[in-house]
Amino acid sequence: MSRVIALAGFPPEILAYAIAMYSRSALSIEESIKKVTEEKAGKFFETFYFAYGHKSIADNAHVAMALENISQIAAFEIEDQSLWDGQERSTRYQKFDTKSDCFVIPKSFRGTYLEGQYVDFATFLLGEYAFFSQACFEYLVKINTKPAEMNDAQYERTMRARAFDVARYWLFGGIKTSVGQVTSARSLEDQITRLLTSEYPDIVELAEQMKSVCISGVPLTPQGFAGGDSDRPSILPTLIKYATANPFQAEMRKAARFWAEHLGLNASVRGDLGSHLENSWVDLASSHSLEAEIIATFLYEGGHVSYREALDKVLHLSENERGKILKHAFKVRGKHDPLPRAYASGYQLIYDIVMDRGGERDLHRHRRCIQIHQQPTAVYGYNIPRIVHEAGLTSRYITGMARVPRIVAEFRDEVGVEANYLLPFAYRSRTLYKMDLAEVAYITELRSGVAGHFSYREAACKMYDLLVNRYPVFEGKFRVTPFETENLLKR
């Protein structure tokens, strides 16, 4: 007779080892857990996992982890994982002011003569955030009469939420946030490895902390809440202890930038995007050979140009030059290294999207697709929300945002990539999204709704428009809300 047995309360590694033994024997699950516990899980794992390379065993160990008071840049990197389940603390519900400890001071700034300058500019950005929060709220109250069926508290929350949609553009990469995640040990090892290979010293430190907590840290358990002792087993004493920085990943990042620079794919942004585009620029790329797509994607990731420009460059390269770029990854790849993300090609629908960093963070949550991110930069300019113009706040907005490129460039000369911590969310980033039709339907239907932020609403609507222009058979088949349909009183 069949049985269904739920398992709870066992340490993640014990379950992983027990299920591994369960799959390799005729023992019941109770007997497997008892045997693993008695034989010491670590010894079992060294035999079956590391000696034989059965990384799938780690899929059975799931770990819940909270990462608190990290930067927005770190949160983005943490969540840039295809197999990932988690939630990030929403900026909408946090208090940001110039007096609170609400932003990270990157390692390269701490204790140097630049720290005061960093704090001063971060404080300026937060001051503008506070000003635009209140000014936009007052304007929205003025032009939107409270419906009779809406109570005062609900009306105020809605108007402040809409004001935040504008004010959030002054928040920046160094703003603190927190992330809760539940991952398999296998995904966690991949994540920590990738973070250890980061260019950002703070992210490397965070990855080392994550690894340490897994191997030897004392986890928070119900016993801990109940006042139990601290002699509780660590969550993953062996599963991720061999995670280290990955030379192959670092080499691929370096190679992408070298070839992009060598081929002139780091030009400054031109006027085709619009100097003050309200929200987003979206392009649906045409399909080409798999070889051309992979190389163009690789160059796109290392440069600061459109996918079309990268593809056009590839199509004009000699066969020898294409071969050099394409084969480099295969030459330097280690025994256990997967190919770079740029090589995850073959999707028919490829969207090149330039949008504000805040909106990009929203679309980043859609991980059932391939996302290729360019480095954060100021070269694509920044968004000016329509409400800023309507409320007569354009001059102050432009004056403040115009200070950013010079400040960030000066800091980049001194400390490198950690200057990106001061890029406000208004500044645009570029990402390539490769997906199937079902994912296009999901994103465009979900993100076009009137309750959403105007930035990703416009991007979603443009994605749909480009799709039906190319494939008219799908017109009217998706439940997409036209961008012109607006309801500021709905959140």
Question: What's a quick, concise take on this entry?
Answer:
This protein has 491 residues and is of the alpha+beta class. It has 19 helices and 7 strands. Helix 11 (290-302) packs across helix 12 (307-315).
Structural notes for this entry:
With 491 residues, the chain is α+β, with helices and mostly antiparallel strands. Helix content is 47%, strand content 10%. The protein is built from 19 helices and 7 strands. The strands form 2 sheets. Strands 4-5-7-6 form a 4-stranded antiparallel sheet, sandwiched between helices. A 3-stranded antiparallel sheet has the order 1-3-2. Helix 1 (12-23) crosses helix 2 (29-39), helix 7 runs antiparallel to helix 8 and helix 11 (290-302) packs across helix 12 (307-315). The chain is globular. Residues 269-277 have low confidence and may be disordered.
Number of helices: 19
Order of helices and strands: HHHEHEHHEHHHHEHHHEHEHHHEHH
- What sort of overall outline do the alpha carbons produce when their principal axes are compared? globular
Give the biggest sheet. Answer: 4 strands, antiparallel
What labels would you give this structure?
four-stranded antiparallel β-sheet; alpha+beta; 491 residues; 10% strand; 7 strands
SSE arrangement:
Blueprint: H1 12-23, H2 29-39, H3 41-50, E1 62-71, H4 72-79, E2 85-88, H5 115-143, H6 152-167, E3 176-184, H7 185-196, H8 201-216, H9 222-225, H10 247-262, E4 280-284, H11 290-302, H12 307-315, H13 319-332, E5 349-356, H14 357-363, E6 370-373, H15 386-390, H16 394-401, H17 404-415, E7 428-435, H18 437-447, H19 454-470
Antiparallel strand pairs: 1-3, 2-3, 4-5, 5-7, 6-7
Helix pairs in contact: 1-2, 1-3, 5-6, 7-8, 10-11, 10-13, 11-12, 18-19
